[in-house]
Structure formats: C-alpha cells, structure tokens
Amino acid sequence: MRRLIGITPEKPVFREQERITAMIRSGRVCYFHIRKPAFNEEQLRAYLRLFPQDVRERLTLHDHHLLAVEMGIGGVHLNRRNPQLAENLKGKRVSVSCHSIEEILQWKAKADYCFLSPIFDSISKQGYRSGFALSELKRLFDDGLLDDRVCALSGVTFDNIPQLEAVGFTSFALLSALWELPRTMFITHFNDRFSYVDGAMAVLEGGLRFVQLRMKDAVDREVLDAAAALRPVCDRHAALLTVDDRIHLLESGLFDGVHVGKNDMPVAAAKEMTGSRYLLGATCNTAADVAAATRDGADYIGLGPFRFTGTKKNLSPILGIEGYRSILKGRGKDADGSKACTVTLHPVCHRRHHPRRPARAASGRRLRRGSVGRGAECPRRAGRVRGNEKMGVMKIEEEYGTEKLRILLVGYVGVGEHNTVGHAGFLPA
Questions:
Q1: Shared domain check, 231 and 140
Q2: Which residues contact 350 (CB under 8 A, 6 or more apart)?
Q3: ∠89-95-96 over CA atoms, to 5°?
Q4: pTM of the predicted model, to two decimals?
Q5: What is the domain count for the chain?
Q6: How does strand 150-152 pair with strand 403-411?
Q7: 290: part of which helix (H) or strand (E)?
Q8: Quick one: 124 and 232 in the same domain?
Q9: Please, are residues 99 and 131 in contact by the beta-carbon 8 Å criterion?
Q10: What's the pLDDT tens digit per position in 325-365?
Q11: Residue 32's closest CA among 149, 150, 174?
Q12: Strands annotated E in 265-385
C-alpha cells in the first residue's frame, strides 16, 4: 500500500498549517514532517499551536524534540542536528535520515521508518545529486535487505512514484511536489456541457493542482457554494483553490488566495489584505504592468492574453510569442538600465485539431484528441497531460543578472469550446 509522507519547506508559506491539516485529514498524506531548522523553540511552539489536536499525532518534529511531549506531537526525526533520542521520548514514532545502504541496515530495525536519500536529483537543494542506481535498489528490495520501512526521499514527485514502486518502494517523502506553485492553472468557466464545478472536478481528478474559481456573473453565495464543493476535492489532491477578484471571500476559509484583474483592486491594496497568509495573483498585459505588480507584492502574474479567447470580456491586446519576448526583454532591465534578472519563458503551444490528423506538439509527440486544445471533450484527460508535465514545447531563456524569474503559461485546459491557453503566469523562482 502506497504511503505518502509530507515535509514542510524551511520557510513558512501561505496557509501552511491549514494545508497540512487538510492533507492529513483527507488521507492524502500519512505523516507530515515539520522541518524548520531556523526556528527557535518558542517560534516552533507558536507554529505548532495552530494545528488541531487530532492532527498533531500525525506530525513529526525534526528539531526541538522535547516539544513533542509538551504539544502532543506523534513523532520525532533523528538527523545530523539531532542524532539521539531523548529518554522521555520513548514511545514516540521515530524516523531517521539515512544516506547509504549501510545506514539503512543499521537503523531500520530501530526506527519506525527511514528516509533514504538522494534517490533522484533534489528539486529543493541545487547540486544535491542522486546517489543510487535504481537497478541496485531493486536488487536490494528483491533480496529483502530493503523493505517497507525504507522511504524514498529527494526529487520524488507524483509522476515518478510509479517508477519507484516498480523498484520496490512503498513509502515516499514529498517536499517540493507538495509546495511548489503548479505550472498550469485551470480557470473555471461554464458552458452547455460543463458547470463551473464539474469542469474543475474533472481536471482535479486528471492531475491538475491549481484551480481559479472564476464566476464573473454569479452572486457571492453561488461562488461560496461552488467553493464548498471543490475545497475537499482540492484537499484530497493537494491542489490550490483561488478565487477571481472577490478578495472579501477569503474570510470564508475556502480559498488559498485571490487573483485580481487589471480593472479590479490595485495589487498593493490587495497585498495589504492578503499579506503572506494568502496567495496573490495579478493580471498583466505589458512590461510596465509586470514591473508594478512585482513591486507591489504579487506572488504570480497572469500575463496575456496569449491569443484570442471568448471566455473574457474586454480582452486586452493579444500578445503572442513575440509579445512575451518583448516583455521579457523589457523586464530584464531596471529603470536605470542596469541588468536585473534571469528570465525563463515556458510557453505551452497547442495546435488546433485537424479533423483527420492528430495534433502534434513541436516535439513530435501526439496530442490525443480530446486531451488538450480547442474542442477537447474530456477535461480529466486534459488534466493528465498537465499532470505529466509534458505540455511545454518551447523554452526561451534570457540571462540578465542575479535575480531569477520565471514566466510560465497558466492555461485554460480545453473544455467544450474554450481555448486551452488563456493567460501566462509570472513566478519568482
């Protein structure tokens, strides 16, 4: 049986405790490791107080182990900073970090489970390279030297878990895969075939992990009813749910953040309300828009439109690839002309389906009819294409300095007659 174990990022992120609580209660993860090496004891105590009692038993501390007794935390993790188990922690769940097969063989009979790393190149630690051959690990599982108490760590994603299961792993530790901002956003819309909720449900089942609830003509009660239906499904899939424009609905506790358009609340005013507690997105159409939204605190930017779409009224000027190039070059310099950043553009390009010939990405890979693009019939399949992170067919990289920024397309997944690609997103890396 597959067991997922979450790990917190070192620095706090928006709605962190709420998201961890949701993932535990929904059964998405079995345990969650609290790894905050920069926190002192009082900071960690204050952090842990925000977790409900029923969730604390599923948490594991990497530091300040004695808080496990005081706060009712279920487990402690032994590592290089804290290599010994205190006497009064006997009876707590114990895990340990291991970086060799020898360490695994030394610890697996003493601990409830062991992290073995690095299995793949690390996503969160640059330069932390894979230390094991999968073929050798499979042999060790086949010989019984490794078993279900060994948990794969480093570079583990939802996409490569099946590969590790074929090796013999049943436990997987996830960090970046749970916390990084997903590359593709689904923006809800309504048509004769799919309701706002039905389309979002389908792409969540298909693998998408970022939904913006956009219901321009609905009243607040209808938006909240839709969010109440989507929230538990998002929690089960560790997906983000944001709301378009209606920042006052954040107080409902149903949303992870808000997206403000060019004609909505100013980004600076929205940031004062969201702070670091909620994700804040902003729509941009020019280099000046991008610079202003970044300065005013946007966490990501919807840059577009990439091409014409009928889902948005009062459409801003179409950008296309050349528009993105131009904005990136403008974004690469500060006001004084000095070089400012490294920028990577990952446009997701789709061809319209030919009635007799399957569409192909620039890479030559076939795009299944009904998976992505105009006229797609199955949003769940569309989600799977995104889930495998295979949609990007073009990468333009321009070096401008030390700050690193990413421009990513945030797509409408094709549902009914709507275009697949709607806006682009801007993410500080």
A1: no
A2: 359, 361, 367, 372, 373, 374, 391, 414, 420, 421
A3: 110
A4: 0.74
A5: 2
A6: unpaired
A7: helix 287-295
A8: no
A9: yes
A10: 777 666 544 433 323 332 222 232 332 333 333 333 323 33
A11: 174
A12: 279-284, 300-303, 341-346, 359-360, 366-367
